[in-house]
Fold Protein GrpE.
Amino acid sequence: MSARETNRSAELKSEEAAATAARDGGDAASSAASPEAQGQSATVASDDHASGPQAEERVRELEQELEAMRRERDEYLDLARRKQAEFENFRRRMGREKAEAGVRAKADLIRDLLPQIDNLERALAAAAPDDPLAEGVRMIHRGFLAALEQHGVEPFDPRGERFDPTLHDALSTRAEEGTEPGVVVDVVEKGYRLGELVIRPARVIVSA
């Protein structure tokens, strides 16, 4: 064998020895690192196992918070609905009271005019048929009644009706042949009403 071949053989053996040493070192390092790697894996697995119950508990807490928020929302909605209903009731009540106040004011004014109408009717009843002033009084009387009618006021004469204390004011009673007791037999002053409101009851005489 030549010197060149001898040197080449020595180099190959040296390279094989180096490769074997490197492999053995890597295996040793891997073996040395294995316990640490296994420890880290065990820690991660333990953390994952611990995070399961904690996550479930957090989910339950969030669900409870959400339910509390829903209850609070429902309470506010219920309060808002009740306040709105109260306002609507107040608005309707104020509307009714305003309308009733207007009717009362109108009734008070008409009530003050009724004695003047009564005087005109008495004058007409006492006037002679050929009295030249009677026609003028009659025209004034008709004008008053027309004005009252425009405002929804109408007179009522309950002669022949059964006495009703809500509509009639009994001034006296008298026996009336052929008439059962409790019937209006005469009207001293007519009654007046505004819709369902009695401005003045009719003043009547009732059969005994």
Remarks:
- Residues 26-33 have pLDDT under 50 and may be disordered.
